[in-house]
Amino acid sequence: MKKVKISASIIGGDMCCLADELKKIEESGADMLHLDVMDGNFVDNITFGPDTVRGLRSRSKMFFDVHLMIYRVYDYVERFKKAGADRLTFQVEATEYVDDTIKFIKTCNMQVGLAISPETNPELLLPHLAKVDQVIVMTVHPGFAGQKFMEEMVDRIEFLSAMKKNHPDLKFEISVDGGVHLENANKCIDAGADILVSASALFDKKSSMKEIVHKMRGGR
Ligand code: DX5
Ligand code: ZN
Fold first, then answer.
1. What distance in angstroms lies between residue 145's CA and the mean position of ligand 1's atoms?
2. Residues forming the active site
3. N or C: which end of the chain has fewer CB within 10 A?
4. Which of the following CATH numbers is that of domain 5-216: 2.60.40.10, 3.40.50.300, 3.40.50.12780, 3.20.20.70?
5. 46: which DSSP letter?
6. Closest ligand 1 atom, residue 149 Cα
7. Which ligand sits closest to the CA of 216?
8. Exposure pattern of 96-120 as b/e (b: 16+ CB <10 Å)?
9. 10 and 21 Cβ atoms separated by less than 8 Å
10. How far is the CA of 62 from the CAs of 7, 27, 46, 105, 111, in angstroms?
11. Does residue 116 line the site of ligand 1, with CB under 6 A?
């Protein structure tokens, strides 16, 4: 059985002690670091920008998966490259220049992803699937950690997984982001998830992060 990857979202931690939280994530064995960038416009919350990513980069060799929930994506691509992002994923709703933005991110030698909000028609992704390395299926409304998983999005994971089965040339990974906990991780994996993004579940103080990462992978 395939081993799902765990992407730890640092906004689940204490935002005042990001370096400590990064260390915790590294020691947990999570496969990558998920960095939620929010601008207070595209979403109703503000987190951090390229300078913070750069600071974390200087302390870590982990894969930095940056999830942009901002407008004017194109204008920020180079800044996140310089800050040390390995992959830049942006919301498909955030720009009318999806194709150009994908191309530019690739030109800057980063992997590229598209994220899709729950209310957005998944058909919007279709013209771009062959060009991206990841699709993030949002299973909450983007903006905040700690929300409830939207069960109705499981169909969307299955839809993307079926697309990959029917078109073996499609190489993107399917990430599931929002409300992922031990109770629904298997459902996501069975539906075709390659990556599970988690903030609250991993930072739940009742168990060690290492233990939760292990369990979320289904004990593998
Ligand atoms: C939500 C973010 C998520 C968030 C997940 O807008 O994109 O990455 O950190 O948090 P949990 O796992 O708590 O739902
Ligand atoms: Zn995210």
1. 4
2. 36, 177
3. N
4. 3.20.20.70
5. B
6. 14
7. 1
8. eebeebbebbbeeebbbbbbbbeee
9. yes
10. 11, 11, 24, 19, 14
11. no
- For residue 136, give Cα distances in angstroms to 15, 17, 61, 112, 220: 23, 27, 23, 11, 23
Q: What is the largest CA-CA distance in the chain?
A: 46
CB of 154 within 6 A of ligand 1: the answer is: no
147 lines ligand 1 (CB under 6 A): yes
Please report where in the chains the tokens 């593998």 appear, as a residue.
220
Q: Is 60 in the pocket of ligand 1 (CB under 6 A)?
A: no
* Residue carrying structure tokens 């998830």: 193
pTM of the model: 0.98
Closest ligand to Cα 11: 1
Phi-psi region of 34 (alpha: psi -120 to 50; beta: other; left: phi over 0): beta
Instruction: Encode pLDDT of 104-157 as tens digits.
Output: 999 999 999 999 999 999 999 999 999 999 999 999 999 999 999 999 999 999
Q: Within 13 Å and on the Cβ side, how many CA atoms surround 172? A: 28
The pLDDT tens digits of the residues spanning 1-51 come to 678 999 999 999 999 999 999 999 999 999 999 999 999 999 999 999 999
